Structure formats: C-alpha cells, structure tokens
Amino acid sequence: xxxxxxxxxxxxxxxxxxxxxxxxxxxxxxxxxxxxxxxxxxxxxxxxxxxxxxxxxxxxxxxxxxxxxxxxxxxxxxxxxxxxxxxxxxxxxxxxxxxxxxxxxxxxxxxxxxxxxxxxxxxxxxxxxxxxxxxxxxxxxxxxxxxxxxxxxxxxxxxxxxxxxxxxxxxxxxxxxxxxxxxxxxxxxxxxxxxxxxxxxxxxxxxxxxxxxxxxxxxxxxxxxxxxxxxxxxxxxxxxxxx
Length: 243
Fold this sequence. Notes:
Blueprint: E1 3-8, E2 11-17, E3 24-27, E4 34-35, E5 46-51, E6 54-59, E7 67-68, E8 71-72, E9 77-78, E10 84-87, E11 90-95, H1 125-131, H2 135-144, E12 148-154, E13 161-163, E14 168-172, E15 179-180, E16 191-196, E17 199-204, E18 211-213, E19 216-217, E20 222-223, E21 229-232, E22 235-241
Parallel strand pairs: 3-4, 14-15
Antiparallel strand pairs: 1-2, 1-11, 3-5, 5-6, 6-9, 7-8, 7-10, 10-11, 12-13, 12-22, 14-16, 16-17, 17-20, 18-19, 18-21, 21-22
C-alpha cells in the first residue's frame, strides 16, 4: 500500500498509509489524516487520493499553495514514486510501494461538532479556557485530544506555558517550531513531543542528545508522566496532565 512520509528539515515526523477507499487529507485542523500544526498551513490544505489507476494530489484552495517537486499545483497532479509535496516548510514524500507505520484514519460515525481551532489554541492556556466555556466545544475537545501542559520553569521561550493539543509538537528555534526557544545558539529543532493513544512521548529531534527528563538523557521515544521535568537544550519545562 502506498504511503506518505511527513518530513521537517531532515527529520521524519511520521508515515501514513494512503487509503484506497477515500481521500487522505492534509491540513492544520485535527480533523485531517495528516495534521501540520503551523500557520503557513490552511485548515484543509490538500488531499491525496486514488484516481482510476494512479494517485493524485489536489490543493484545496489553500492560502500558501501546494507544491510538487517545487512546482505549484494548479490542478490535480499525478504523483510518482519519490515525489515531494511541499506544504509550508514541511515536505511529504510519496512512496508508491511501501508500508506505513500509521494507517490513515477511518471516518468517524456521528462525528461531534469540531470547533475551529486557531493558532493560539496550541500555544496558550488562556485561549483554551475561553473555548471551553462553550459546552459543545468542550465536549468535542475532550473527545478529540488528551490535553497536557508544559510550563516554563527556566530559560526563554516565546510563551510562558503551552497546551499540547496537537499530535506533534516541535521544540526549537525554527519559525516552524510549535514551542520556540530563544537564544543565539539554540538549535532549529531540538526535541519532539508526540501525542499517541497511550499518552505523550518525547524524543530528540536530531542525533544530538538535547532532551532530558528528570535529569536523565532521553533515548528513543520516552513516555512522559504527570510531574516530569523536561529539559530541552537548557530550557526546563514542567509536564502536567489535565484533570
């Protein structure tokens, strides 16, 4: 079964199987099969699907456009093995003959109302509190995400605390990072936090050991527990799960 491989800079962030029966969606909203949490990405940015005997990519009137091998997609474009789809600063590589580690999500029955999430939702606790005042939005969010928080204990970042509602949180100095570290010598990408079915996991974004949990270096994808102190390139955070 064909797969899509999501990449940011030199890092592979995930692999997703292309479902023959329906389009695979890409965008900033959590509704999408591949969610890219960045302002350069539209709520529903693009779709990949089987069209007769070949796979195609189709831009969904996104603001910043979809590119295949550095050429902007103006209409349905046929994908060939190894083609690179550029969305913002992320790349999604199409492999026609490969197995993915993650299947495309199945359509949900009786899907609850999903609030329109803007960029501040994943960055500030205040915005989330305002949204949860609406019972319908609170129900949708509670079903869709297991919410965790990061509070800055030491070091400089762009926010004092963060709500980890996304499936993937990138920590670093890059403009594409969800949690931006401040400082001349901070790396563009230092750590990655993944939200999975069994909870949150943290890993180094590069071969350098820049992430520690409770003072110990992280190896592979390490689960996070309530009260853990996470250190990324010298910046310390308190990890906590919402009640």
